Amino acid sequence: MKALVTQIVEDALSAAIASGELPLQEVPSADIERPRDATHGDWATAVALRSAKLAGMSPRAIADIVVSHLSDHPDIDAVEIAGPGFINLRLSVKALTRIITEVRELRASFGKAEPKAEYIQVEFVSANPVGPMHVGHGRWAALGDALCLVLEHAGYRVQREFYLNDEGNQMNVFADSVAERYLELCGESFDEDLIGYKGTYIKDIAAQIFEAEERQWVEVSASERRSYFRQRSYDQVLSHVKSVLERFGVAFDQWFSEHSMHVPDDEGKTEIQKSIDGLAAKGHIYEEEGALWFKSEELGDDKNRVLLKGDGSATYFAADIAYHENKFMRGFGKVINLWGADHHGYIKRMEAAVAALGHAGQLEILLGQLVTLYRDGQLVRMSKRTGEMVTFEELIDEVGVDAARYHLVRISSDQPLAFDIDQAKDQSSNNPVFYVQYAHARICSILRKAGNKSGEDVADIDALAAAVIGESIDLSLLSHEAELALMRKISEFSEVVERAARDRAPFRLTHYAEELASLYHQFYQQCQVLGDDEALSNARLSLVDAVRHTLANTLMLIGISAPNKM
């Protein structure tokens, strides 16, 4: 729709230039936009103001000329000049109804942009593989995946990546914690001080190893036991994490291991050392007090940072630099990291490192704020089952995947999220995801009724819609204000996707879904779809079918289902 209106305005400008009324050498861009106040019209352009100096005329005079070439256009119902020269346009019913045909033809491809050249990587979740995911990880999973879906619909090629922090002392602490619990189960003496991770899940992992291998690891050396338990426990946690994410509908293209960057190649060099060597060659490294430092202060950080400690071991920051260099070597034009809010102080140094690598401006870091759970108006801190933190998996168990994804995406990532468990489970209009899904299901019910299948399950609702809606459709009959409001809202979908992708803001899709569902429910109360007037019924069936597709597409971009029955 935006392209249509842009063409209409630019054709009017071209005609005005050709007639000699507008003294310009070339047609300026219309740059149309939605008016902030919907009562002003469907679209607006400030082209008269922007062209005034070049044309040597007042904006108002230019606007008068442009309007004279717009007034008789069949797709324009009304046009007016506002303020110093803004041009407001209201589309005709004929123009608005085109969106119905477009949606019903394109279906899942409606609103999808032409492919873009830029290849974007989105890294998200990246939970430490030493225990179950918490609800914050769930928020990042929902936000990250929805962002990827939106970017893909906006025409970008996207890769989803999970970074595994499977190196460093935390992995040894994790292994020791499981090993000591294992020794406890074997009736052997164990060191409570070595149990750094206290969760019930540590006992569960130890119990599974004991059940499978009994006392096999009692008599071996502590180092051998640690090595085995480290890998076995890591594999078990990672398998669980993958299982939960798969259940949540999130599939990663790449699981990148931090450990891989610590493994020497045939020449004895790790990826971390190669990265440091590269920075040194560019003059970004210096040595002081036996340590190797990165000159991050020169690149916008508040101080310089250690890469190699005095004992020669690499810092986490050194590994992160090597990891990001690896990302850009894989051909990504843009790298987006979704991190927890506690990483705020890490942003400047990472941006400095990426700039030193030669990729300034190609890294974006989005911070996901914390999630707090509420039940019966009370803060929920502990799991009823374990007496510990509520895990992400337990939240899914209680509210379901669709409700969890919707509510975790609904608020901007830079705001703390208060997750109301009761609301997420509510089967009424008080629950926004139920409200939106019910609008879709209600439309499917109308289509079944139109096909005399109101009591039957219909697997292919698209085939049913095609069967019950005839080919001869007079969409000009759709003139009720509730019908026009639906068409206007549907026509906004492409712009919503574009803005959500541009601003990395998938939460806008939930707002749009709720607005479209609200307009549909209002339409349902005011306009009878299946009535005695067959032509009008057919036109309204076409309209609600377009609403169905648009709702389904919106829900698809959030990563949740559009049920045919509820």
Task: Using brief descriptors, characterize the structure shown.
about 575 residues, three-stranded antiparallel beta sheet, flat, 20 helices, alpha/beta, five-stranded parallel beta sheet
How would you describe the overall organization of this protein?
- The chain is α/β, with parallel strands linked by helices and 566 residues long.
- 49% of the residues lie in helices and 12% in strands.
- The protein has 20 helices and 14 strands.
- It has helices at 2-18, 47-55, 59-68, 93-106, 135-153, 169-185, 200-213, 222-247, 271-281, 316-329, 347-356, 392-399, 401-409, 421-425, 432-450, 461-468, 481-491, 493-502, 507-526, 534-558, and strands at residues 43-45, 76-82, 86-91, 119-123, 157-164, 254-257, 285-288, 291-294, 305-308, 334-340, 363-368, 371-375, 378-380, 417-420.
- The protein has a five-stranded parallel β-sheet, sandwiched between helices. Strands 1-3-2 form a three-stranded antiparallel β-sheet. The protein has a three-stranded antiparallel β-sheet with strand order 7-8-9.
- A hairpin with a 2-residue loop joins strand 12 and strand 13.
- Helix 5 (135-153) crosses helix 13, helix 12 packs across helix 13 (401-409) and helix 15 (432-450) runs antiparallel to helix 20.
- The two termini are 33 Å apart.
Short description:
This protein is α/β, with parallel strands linked by helices and 566 residues long. It is built from 20 helices and 14 strands. Strands 6-5-4-10-11 form a 5-stranded parallel sheet, sandwiched between helices. A 3-stranded antiparallel sheet has the order 1-3-2. A 3-stranded antiparallel sheet has the order 7-8-9.
